[in-house]
Amino acid sequence: ASEVTQTTAPASALQEGLARLDARIQQAVQQVEQRLGPQADPYRGLVIRHEDVLSLAAHPLSLVWDADEDDDPASVYTHSLSHWLARSFHLARFDLDVLFLALAPETDLRYERLFAYLQDDVTRRRPSIDLALNLFCAGEDSRLAYLAHFAPDAPLVRGGLIELVAPADQPDAPFRKHFLRADRQVYQLLTGQLALTGDLHPSARLIVPERALDDLYLDADLVSTLRTVIESPQRPLQIYLKGPRGADREWVAEACALASDRLLLRVDLSRLPESLPAYQRLLDTVFRAAWFRGALLFFENVDAVRADRDDPRYEHLLYKLAHDEGITLLAGHGEWLASSHHITHVIPLALETPAFAVRRACWQAHLAALGMSCEDAVLDTVAAQFRLLPAQIAQAAVDGYHRARLRAAGQPQRTPTVADLAAAAQAQSTHELDDLAERLTPAHQWDDLVLPDDALSQLQEIVQRVRLRHRVMDDWQYRRKDARGHGVTVLFAGPSGTGKTMAGEIIARELGLALYRIDLSGVVSKYIGETEKNLSRIFDAATRSHAILFFDEADALFGKRSEVRDAHDRYANIEISYLLQRMETYDGVAILASNLRDNIDDAFLRRLTFLVEFPFPDADSRHRIWQRIWTPETPLGSDVELWAMAEQFRLTGGNIKNIALAAAFLAAAEDQPVSQAHLLHATRREFQKLGRRMPDLAAPE
Q: Quick check: helix, strand or coil at residue 648?
């Protein structure tokens, strides 16, 4: 189609078809006048006279003329565009005649009056099947034979070039009385129009490609594969881009269209109708639109129509792909689902986050395009910590540019900082996790955390592992040693209130990543299969959100796998195995919090990157917590004995935090500094909540 539309004068094909139609109409009008007499009836089509009925009964009206031509389109049509239509849709000469007949009213309204006259009805201004048979067939036998050209499986109807419409006032009208309506896109093809028809908006968009494959900042292997596939002579060609939703998938499709010297027709499947008949009609229109324009067809959001392999909308898409001979790209974030009913040869390609070096170059290029330079250390940090796709980096660079300008308003120096770009990068992450988990805002620093030295060292090693992952996995090529996920999975084990959530916040703050807390007690379901679905949604959303997952109450799921004594035990073990599998393939940071270290399955422990113990604080640790719990602005009375509080009351850091805050409110209510009496009163309330008796302060620990 692209060759035809680029090398011919499109209007001449339409002119040729209408000229042939005009000749037929002229002869038909002459036959009507001969049959009904030389005097025209001013009420023709409105009144049926007695003599007309007698004439029609004696001599059936037959607009027949000599038809000595065969059914080969080339016998009467010379234009290459007509030949392309005939060849592409397997049309006979009669089919082309009918197509131009249906197109005539779209071209010139005078045809409406002619059709009304020939059909002896002023209300029938569109050509009918009967008129087509009378105009283009020689005799009744021929008309009966050619009636098959209007069957549902005939090329004109099956290809969607014409639609058969019953009269509005006669839904049960005879078949030969049905009107012919041409597809608007055929008229656009013949007149050289590229704009999409109104029924395709807003689900489809025609794009003139500008981006090249080398401009995409993708890994070299993926670019090479795409170029090889696009430049190959294989047809039909169908490519499935698996990756997160975003502009990158469209950029890749655009580059493929440019490489194949075609337009790009982008179709969002999530915007197509829910109704199956309406969906099928619009999808058929989409394929014709791409075919007529010689465009590369790109289906975005395939997941919207493939809840399962048996979804009829997905089945119809596969049917169209199996019968299409062009180039089609599809995109989704799930695996490609084949079909046993329709044979398609789809090439799946994973659109993964590019390597560190490519991400860094992408950041640098987009910031330079905005007239901003950036320190190497800043580029290294954001490229390492935020595994964004190129389109996300492009948007984050613009966002970071504006953040730097606002921060440095009135100053000549506007170099973006790590904080500027980190905030911009976070904004590019999808927010699907907001519906599945609680987002935590990190408010703590290393000095707020009181832990043994070894535990603190482990937490710092976690941060280093994330920051330097690109050097080991990419530069030193350890990624080739293990094809599974290369994320960091950590278990925080210890009693409640010992600082596990605080440690997660500190790690997120250090890395500049969002932190989401998931309560696993709410994820585990008593219904078979629901727990796996919940976990799948969380991990899928986390992959697209570039966030740290903090699984709280992990004991709800991470217990030791038991012997299979009943169906409940068997499915509980399946849930644990599924979690292990997702953790192995996860490429982000997952922190699991458990109160009971001994209940963790050994097989699970082997898959952890780090295990950090959070012990119950001893007296010295409690004293340090008491010292650090206060803000600099808090007035402390001279009678406050923090060491006595630490030594006397065996409490966790979480309990101490509650007591300090309660004591501050008590002091504020009295407009006094925080005193020992306030601390003891708040401590008594905390023990009441715990259901424990408060020890006497004078008694030994």
A: helix
Each residue's pLDDT tens digit, 144-158 = 999 999 999 999 999
What would the two tokens of residue 558 be?
A: 């991470």
Distances from the Cα of 304 to the Cαs of 300, 317, 604, in angstroms?
9, 12, 35
Three-state DSSP class for 673? Answer: coil
Residue that is written with structure tokens 């458990």 in the block: 594
Beta bridge partners of 492: 593, 612
Q: Confirm if 230 and 338 have CB atoms less than 8 A apart.
A: no
Residue labelled with tokens 């999975």: 489
Positions of E strands within 502-630: 515-519, 548-552, 589-594, 610-613
- Element of type H or E holding 8: none
Residue 322 backbone zone (phi > 0: left; psi -120 to 50: alpha; other: beta): alpha
- Sequence-ordered strand ranges (E) for 269-386: 296-300, 327-332, 346-350
Please tell me which residue, 45 or 547, carries the higher pLDDT value. Answer: 547
For residue 8, give the nearest of 85, 74, 69 by alpha carbon: 85
pTM, 2 dp? 0.74
Helix (H, G, I), strand (E, B) or coil at 550: strand
Phi-psi region of 231 (alpha: psi -120 to 50; beta: other; left: phi over 0): alpha
pLDDT digits 0-9 by tens, 513-542: 889 998 877 777 666 677 788 888 888 888
- pLDDT exceeds cutoff 60 at 81: yes
DSSP string, 268-298: EGGGS-SSHHHHHHHHHHHHHHHHHHTPEEE
Give the Cα separation of 656 and 654 in Å (integer): 5
- % of the chain residues with pLDDT over 70: 85
Beta bridge partners of 206: 265
| Cα–Cα distance for residue pair 250/268, rounded to 1 Å | 11
Residue given tokens 């010292």 in the structure block: 627
**Helix, strand, or coil (residue 552):** strand
Q: How far apart are the first and last CA of the chain?
A: 89
